[in-house]
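Exam revision sheet. Question 4 asks you to relate a sequence to its structure. Input first:
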Amino acid sequence: MDYSKLPTEMQNPKSSRLDLLSVEEILHLMDREDRAVPEAVRKVNPKIAQAVRIIVASIKKGGRLFFVGAGTSGRLGILEAAECPPTFHTPAGLVQAVMAGGRQAVFRSQEGAEDNASQGRGEIRRRRVRRNDVVIGISASGVTPFVQEALQEAKKRGAHTSLIACNLRTPLRSQGDVLIAPRVGPEVIAGSTRLKAGTATKLILNRLTVASMVRLGKVYENWMVDLEPRSRKLKARALRIFQRFTGVSNEKAKQLLKRAKGRVKPAILMARKNLSYAEARRLLKKTDGFLRKALL
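Answer key, structure tokens:
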């Protein structure tokens, strides 16, 4: 393969004198280049929406969501998966990240790991990916062997597959039901895909998880009513959210949240509808977790 032809490897003519610029000029140049990223992502919103609908339908059927990547792409997948439990109270196994090179590659670069195709295949087998699961490959270049084999194995097992790549002509496009390929252009430093490609990938991952979790009833208005209050800050946030929608005193709010095991959604129902914790949970189950429906 001629890697020099990849969009992510090409030289950016606008930064060809990068090493001669002052600090301020470097930052100004990066600012101009970064401005194009949100627009590139906006143009692929229809593809993101398609992927979200697949994620939501799959999770409702008992499926799981996997992000698979190497290097920066893999680390971005890890970040997204790690944030779902505290923000949306998802079970630990519902959103998972698969990183080329494993845990040791998270904090120390192991660039050769991306070429280990058999490991990509093995990780999908080890996690017993199955029908109704969703596997999203993340590969800025669109040619990562680890991601390619992971997607191939996932498809064989009947899972839904999608690919995030900053290369519309990626040879991996046939491995995904949905290809999300923003055109961000060459990087300020040629080949450094942690820059514009990484920013675009993070924006896309944000949209995939946020839109999916909202459609799964994890948010009421724009508040994270399914958060896991495990720190002092999050406990204070849970208390504020609860009081916002109930108007009860601080002391009573603490008592109700304690009875609700710290869960904001059932606690709100307990206060607003005078229910027990068990009754509130049953009502939420009937409404598929949507607090707005439960409050009607």
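Marking note for examiners. Residues 155 and 161 are 7 Å apart (CA to CA).
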